[in-house]
Design goal:
Chain A: It comes from Pseudohoeflea coraliihabitans. Chain A: InterPro entries: AAA+_ATPase (IPR003593), ABC_SmlMolc_Importer (IPR050093), ABC_transporter-like_ATP-bd (IPR003439), ABC_transporter-like_CS (IPR017871), Transp-assoc_OB_typ2 (IPR013611). Chain A: Residues 6-236 form the ABC transporter domain. The complex is a heterotrimer. Chain A is α+β, with helices and mostly antiparallel strands. Chain A has 2 domains: 6-234, P-loop containing nucleotide triphosphate hydrolases (Rossmann fold, 3-Layer(aba) Sandwich); 238-359, Nucleic acid-binding proteins (OB fold (Dihydrolipoamide Acetyltransferase, E2P)). Chain A has helices spanning 44-52, 94-104, 109-122, 138-150, 168-185, 196-202, 220-225, 230-235, and strands at residues 6-15, 18-28, 33-37, 59-64, 67-68, 80-82, 156-160, 188-193, 205-210, 213-218, 240-249, 253-258, 262-270, 278-283, 288-291, 301-311, 314-321, 326-332, 346-351, 357-359. A 6-stranded mixed beta sheet of chain A has the order 6-7-8-3-9-10, with helices on both faces. In chain A, strands 11-12-13-20-14 form a 5-stranded mixed beta barrel. In chain A, strands 15-19-16-17-18 form a 5-stranded antiparallel beta sheet, with no helix packed on it. In chain A, a hairpin with a 3-residue loop joins strand 11 and strand 12 (253-258). In chain A, helix 2 (94-104) crosses helix 3, helix 2 runs parallel beside helix 4 and helix 3 packs across helix 4 (138-150). The two termini of chain A are 36 Å apart. The mean pLDDT of chain A is 89. Chain B has one domain: MetI-like fold (Orthogonal Bundle). Chain B contains 13 helices and no strands. Chain B has helices spanning 2-19, 30-53, 60-67, 69-102, 105-120, 123-134, 139-146, 160-184, 188-196, 201-229, 233-239, 246-255, 260-292. The longest helix of chain B is centred in the N-terminal third of the chain and has 34 residues, at 69-102. The radius of gyration of chain B is 26 Å and the shape is globular. Chain C has helices at 11-37, 54-61, 63-96, 102-114, 117-131, 137-161, 165-173, 178-189, 191-207, 210-215, 223-231, 237-265. The radius of gyration of chain C is 23 Å and the shape is globular. The chains are: A alpha+beta, B mainly alpha, C mainly alpha. At the B-C interface, helix 2, helix 4, helix 5, helix 6 and helix 8 of B face helix 1, helix 3, helix 4, helix 5 and helix 6 of C.
């Protein structure tokens, strides 16, 4: 058995009666970029702050190359971090900011100069050496913060929603930069965000946080195709949920009844089926189809179209089931099944049971 | 093996830290706490004790203070002067604060600079100036006589008139600044609305602007009143010996007459009245401000 | 209407007249003293018949005035250093601490500023007589420190509250010891606050009269005490020159504060 590069082992953080982090376990490989994705208050930032040493866990341990990190104070952990707010030292120039960690490590003047130049090149801010932080844009400041955090070759870089203060266009630009810098430096990055697009765009793997727990860890496609919980399904990608009854199950798949009489078999099941259990059926908008006929096998669910929206390459069709729930179906432009349809028409909704999920 | 050792380290370390949680970060406040308790709380409490223990245990010091006409006259002086100063400061301060809100900003800045300069100019220097200005042969009397307003020089100093003038001068900034803060938050649309409703300027002033500024007037007025009660330097220099105020009485009882019992009792009365008025202020304005913001 | 300057009609000229009158009322005494200090009249005739620097000459030739000024300076500087150091430690604790009752503690620290000084003076006088430190520099420093500390704590808690602790955290993660991070990052960042705290602490001590009257002895007086005791005898123009010196120092320091604040903003 090989030791993982970074291991978060049973970390728990309590503030009085409040449990902020609930026994989190996670293994991170060297050179990985992993995001902690979740809504605010889900424990993702607290976990990051425990890694940085600004918070102490109530219980649990963090191991780097098999050695505990908790006994080391923050300033000796040799970890890099980029914060949510701009944290450049306001009285120092850009160059001096990047040199700061090297000065406290007592590097020689020549080494510091060389390194500062290299870091400025890395974040593409050559020539900004003598600027004061106050004279730079938010995006530039965060790039300098990134250069400062990487200047001393930390094995781990923590990023706590570093782009949340920037506008969307700039955010995407810097996300791209982060990918590039990650490839160039091969540093292990732990990245906290509440933005699923950002997580999908950046990460090798995503850990989805909810109420202090990690619900699921996996690559973006894994989380999307095989969500472990209803929360993950809702958080990653667009989703439609229909309530249903569980009428039979073999433990991994279930037979469900939608409305009064449509029974669908072989839907992957998450959670435990009880007696006459109710469940929620997850359907992805782009994995549904609409047709005008019920079809020979009667696997379609009759729905009434309530709205049709043209969105360029896609068309969104909102439809209501007989019991009043709505689904949103996304069809490619020019799809034959909807030509000539209009509001109020009744159509049959079809989906592949194997690609759907039911949560209890 | 190593991970075992690690666990025992963290396990041993954590509970200790958590215990200290109740006072986490208090250390830095220790020197200041020590200073304030030893040299402020303890001496003030000791003074209270002296007022009921010297020359003999009991409340006779307070009975003397509240029972003798000499001392009652000091209390009356203090109360009258403080009230007059408060009224004068409010009457003069309100239009100034009002003007500061609406005047062109360059003018506002100049007046603010003058206010700050006046506040931070040495109290003795300012009082000295008034002693000279107000004396019988001073510039004010001279000017008035030259203008033919008076035949005889007015007695403007060594009496309560002098004290009131000098203290109004000193207290003005303390009324203007808070009042400015309150008037600035009044929405000018409210007053435009009053005008549209047909109110004359005078009606808008008395029925809208003044009521809206009232909390600021009350807060500033109370503060000036409290400060005036305990003022020492200006009354002592401008009031003369026959028109003593409370702070001067305390100083004299302790320094000249060395009557610690009576002096402590008088100091304590001043302290209690001051704290009570601050409490009133906090109760009326503190909560409203918190609710409002 | 009443809050629109240009729509006030003739009322605005009344308001303007009041403002000018009050400004003159506030400025007059200060200008008056400065003028008198250069006037030749022993009897403080205004306007002065002719100009002289005689009173300044007398002031600077009198060893008692010089000693008083020196004492004021010495006590003020000691108070400044202590007030900033103690205030800084206390402010860190008040802003960053996690203990209960921080608000109450802050209120306790600020109380000496709002209570009648004469009560504090009498209480300290009694206490110092017992300790035997009346009429000593130590006594003066402690008394002035009590009323200077609130200014220091107000300025520094304000500065620290406006400073994002993440910046200090960033320095710590960069490898700086927490103390080094405070010295090299936090303190430079709150420098304007430190400066205000220092200036106001010094001015509080430099201008303080009431405590000083009680703490003073015939051999140890500050400038305000010396003015006070001279003033009770006669109104010699030497006092005008001493007052002018006192006020000049205050104005210079206040201008410095304003300049530093402006420099920080731009």
């Amino acid at each position: 058995m090989t030791t993982p590069f970074l291991e978060i082992r049973g970390i728990r953080k309590e503030y009085g009666p409040v449990v902020a982090v609930h026994d989190v376990n996670l293994e991170v490989d060297r050179g990985e970029l992993i995001t902690f994705l979740g809504p605010s208050g889900s424990g993702k930032s607290t976990t990051l702050y425990i890694l940085a040493g600004f918070e102490e866990p109530t219980r649990g341990d963090i191991l780097l190359d098999g050695e505990t990190l908790l006994a080391t104070p923050s300033h000796r952990r040799n970890i890099g971090m980029v914060f949510q707010r701009y944290t450049l030292f306001p009285h120092l120039s850009v160059g001096e900011n990047i040199a700061f960690p090297l000065r406290v490590r007592r590097w020689s003047k020549a080494d510091i100069d060389a390194r500062v130049r290299r870091m400025l090149e890395l974040v593409r801010l050559n020539g900004y050496e003598d600027r004061k932080p106050a004279m730079m844009s938010g995006g530039q400041q965060q790039r300098v913060a990134l250069a400062r955090a990487l200047a001393y070759d930390p094995p781990i870089l923590l990023m706590d929603e570093p782009l949340s203060a920037l506008d969307k266009k700039l955010r995407e630009e810097i996300q791209h930069e982060i990918r590039r810098i990650h490839h160039e430096t091969e540093v292990t990055i732990l990245y906290v965000t509440h933005d699923q697009d950002e997580a999908l765009r950046l990460s090798d793997r995503i850990a989805v946080f909810s109420q202090g727990c990690i619900d699921q860890v996996g690559t973006g496609p894994q989380l999307y195709a095989e969500p472990a919980t209803r929360f993950v399904a809702e958080f990653i990608g667009d989703s439609d949920f229909l309530s249903c009854d569980l009428v039979g199950s073999n433990g991994t798949t279930a037979d469900i009844r939608l409305g009064d009489d449509l029974v669908v078999s072989g839907v992957p099941l998450h959670g435990r089926p009880g007696e006459r259990a109710r469940g929620a059926l997850l359907l992805r908008p782009e994995r549904m189809d609409l047709s005008r006929q019920a079809g020979p096998d009667k696997t379609g669910l009759p729905v009434q179209i309530s709205d049709i929206t043209f969105l360029g390459s896609n068309i969104h069709v909102a439809a209501a089931t007989g019991w009043g729930e709505t689904v949103s179906v996304r069809l490619p432009f020019g799809h034959q099944s909807i030509s000539g349809l209009s509001r109020g028409d009744t159509v049959w909704l079809r989906f592949d049971p194997g690609a759907a999920h039911v949560f209890t | 093996m190593s991970s075992h050792a690690v666990h025992s380290i963290t396990a041993a370390k954590l509970p200790r830290r958590r215990k200290a949680g109740g006072l986490r970060g208090f250390g830095g406040a220790m020197p200041a706490t020590f200073l304030v308790i030893l040299f402020f709380v303890v001496p003030v409490l000791a003074l209270l004790l002296r007022s009921v223990l010297e020359p003999a245990p009991g409340l006779q010091n307070y009975e003397t203070l509240l029972g003798s006409t000499t001392y009652l006259k000091v209390f009356a002086n203090t109360f009258i002067v403080s009230t007059l100063v408060t009224i004068c400061a409010l009457v003069i301060g309100f239009p100034v604060a009002w003007a500061l809100v609406i005047m062109p900003s360059t003018l506002t800045r100049i007046v603010f600079a003058i206010l700050l300069l006046s506040m931070w100019t040495n109290l003795l220097a300012r009082t000295y100036a008034w002693m000279v200005l107000l004396q019988r042969t001073g510039i004010i009397n001279k000017t008035l006589m030259q203008l033919g307003v008076i035949d005889q020089p007015l007695a403007l100093v060594n009496n309560l008139t002098g004290v009131t003038i000098g203290m109004t001068y000193i207290m003005l900034p303390f009324v203007i600044l808070p009042l400015y803060g309150v008037i600035r938050t009044i929405d000018r649309a409210v007053l435009r609305a009053a005008a549209l409703c047909g109110a004359t300027r005078w009606q808008a002033l008395t029925r809208v602007l003044l009521p809206l500024a009232a909390p600021g007037m009350a807060a500033g007025g109370l503060m000036v009143f409290v400060m005036s009660l305990g003022y020492f330097v200006t009354p002592a220099l401008l009031g003369g010996t026959s028109n003593m105020m409370l702070a001067e009485l305390i100083a004299q009882l302790v320094q000249s007459l060395v009557d610690w019992g009576l002096g402590s009792a008088a100091a304590f009365l001043l302290l209690v009245v001051t704290l009570a008025l601050y409490a009133v202020q906090l109760k009326i304005f503190g909560t409203r401000q918190m609710g409002g913001r | 209407m009443l809050l629109d300057f240009h729509r006030l009609g003739w009322w605005r000229w009344v308001l303007l007249a009041i403002v000018i009158a009050v400004s003159a009322f506030l400025l007059l005494p200060i200008i008056f003293i400065a003028t008198l200090s250069f006037g030749s009249s022993q009897w403080l005739i205004f306007p002065p018949p002719s100009w002289t620097t005689r009173w300044y000459g007398e002031l600077f030739a009198d060893p008692r005035w010089l000693a008083a000024a020196f004492n004021s300076l010495k006590i003020g500087l000691i108070v400044t250093v202590l007030s900033v150091l103690i205030g800084l430690a206390a402010s860190f604790s008040l802003v960053r601490g996690k203990f209960r009752g921080r608000e109450t503690l802050k209120a306790l620290f600020l109380t000496p500023m709002i209570l009648p000084v004469v009560v504090l003076a009498v209480a300290l006088y009694a206490f110092f007589l017992r300790l035997g430190i009346n009429g000593t520099v130590t006594g003066f420093v402690i008394a002035h420190l009590l009323v200077a500390l609130p200014f220091s704590i107000l300025a520094l808690t304000n500065a620290l509250e406006g400073f994002d602790k993440s910046v200090e955290d960033a320095a710590v993660l960069c490898g700086a010891h927490p103390l080094e991070a405070k010295l090299r990052v936090t303190l430079p960042a709150i420098a304007p606050g430190l400066f205000s705290a220092a200036i106001f602490s010094f001015l509080t001590s430099w201008d303080e009269v009431v405590l000083a009257i009680f703490m003073a002895s015939p051999t140890l007086q500050t400038l305000p005490v010396r003015i006070w005791s001279t003033l009770r005898q006669d109104l010699t123009p030497v006092i005008a020159s001493a007052s002018t010196v006192l006020v000049a120092v205050t104005i210079i320091l206040m201008l410095l504060v304003a300049l530093v604040r402006k420099g920080m903003k731009s």
